[in-house]
Amino acid sequence: MPISTVQETKRKPDTTLRCVYKNDLRHEILLMQWWQAIVLANELEQTLCSSLHAPLAFCVHFSQPDLLRFCIDEHGIWFAFWVEPLLAGGVQGLWVRPTYRKSRIAADALLRALDWGFSAYPLLLSTTIQEKVARQLKYLGYTAPYNIPGLWPGTTNCLIQYQTREHWKDWRIFIQKHTRRHGYGRSEGC
Question: What residues make up the domain containing 113?
């Protein structure tokens, strides 16, 4: 097969934010493939709390209605964003397959996922053990990270940041202006 034909038939990743509304076999397979991708990337410890490391607990947790938004490609979930209620706000989580990190479509998916998160909650809280992630969130208008030792099991550092809906609206306008100049924010979807 000529190279040009291979390139023409390669499917572009889907950037539509999807959600799990019901437990069916298709969604369960996607969740298991996603869990496997996290394990194969050696990111289970830094992405999820220990209570979600077992595959069954992972699938049960992420099968909850209106918790998870994700994008898929031919290999399964490549972008996942979830928000769990906490008091009047929500605690957010994010995973992007390593091959999509630093890509324009991942940046666009993140902006749309944050829009969804702020449409549901007036405040989003982020917890991470990765300083790089905390720096990226600060760029998106989140507060400076605050370290709470021992909050994340198995590590001494847990960085906490937050962003409010009102502040996000202002930052979103700034980000849209900035990203248009660099070609972000052009994909279809939510």
Answer: 16-182
